[in-house]
Amino acid sequence: MANIKALGDFGYGFNDEGQLRKLDKTGYPGEEPFQFSVSDNHQECQRHYEELGEAVTKYVYDTLENDLMLTRMPVPEQCANGTFIFVSKEYELKDRLLVLIHGSGVVRAGQWARSLIINDKIDSGTQIPYIKKAVENGFGVLIMNTNDNHKANGDTIPKSGSPEEHASYVWDNYISKTKASAIAIVAHSYGGIVVMDLANKYKDDFQERVKAIAFTDSVHGYSKLKVTKYLKKVAKNWVASNNPLDSPVSTPDHEIIRVSAGHPKHELTSYSCINSVFKFIEEKIPN
User: Fold this and answer.
1) DSSP string, 83-118
2) Dihedral of the CA atoms 34, 69, 73, 120 (nearest 10)?
3) Chain centroid, CA 182 distance in Å
4) Membrane-spanning regions, if any (predicted)?
5) Catalytic one among 88, 160, 189, 272?
């Protein structure tokens, strides 16, 4: 991220409400929101959007480290130019551990949806509310970075060539070594497939320690792995729906129970159902 521009270089900043706004003449965020169109050339507009997105990722990383006091841990270990995860202070010593796994695409550690960060607000598009709530409730926190699979030159990052490989390495080298007797996982969209892979690959340790899994509009149904009785017992899937939060949603017998996330938009499900998710986790893993 060393060569990534800062948000200010694009003339943007976040206001006190966490909304991205153009900087005014005073150098502070004003009233004007993000504008995609910066020229008549669509490719130029798209390039500008993607570069701004990289600046947003840098901003989120900085926020995790400087405001939330999280620490980067390398993947693979002892590798200076690989990728990394984030962990809270003394996460490895906590009896309760929360693991956050985002979906696929351009999002990186700490994010649910880059588009929401840019067009809505920090809280709806990032995992920051989950991190704060977990730390307040005494959980250790570990944040995966499953989409960071390639170096700047295009080479595959060792042990992180795919979301599944990244997650497996993190389980082997970080999660398995913690003292946590009770692990909760929150996984959005493709993160559900990553969880299915972990549950299958580390069956004994996973079933012994993972007591709660909150899926948010998970696509784990596309996994080739079957939903086990264990997963049905410990997991719930908050899906995009126009129905009120926690309303029952038709669930096939072979599937994990589905309830409404309280919002019809896929990328907003994690933010919309956060209070219900933590209530579910606390019921499964009482302090």
Assistant:
1) EEEEE-TTGGG-SEEEEEE--SSS--TTBS-HHHHH
2) -20
3) 20
4) none
5) 189
C-beta neighbour count of 85 within 10 angstroms: 27
- Quote the tokens at residue 259: 């309830």
Domain coordinates in residue numbering, the chain: 1-67, 71-284
Active site residue 189: yes
DSSP 3-state of 212: strand
Architecture of the CATH domain 71-284: 3-Layer(aba) Sandwich (3.40)
pLDDT tens digits, 16-50: 999 999 999 998 999 999 888 888 888 988 998 99
Q: Flag whether the pTM goes above 0.90.
A: yes
Residue 270 has pLDDT above 90, yes or no: yes
- For residue range 158-196, list pLDDT tens digits in order: 999 999 999 999 999 999 999 999 999 999 999 999 999
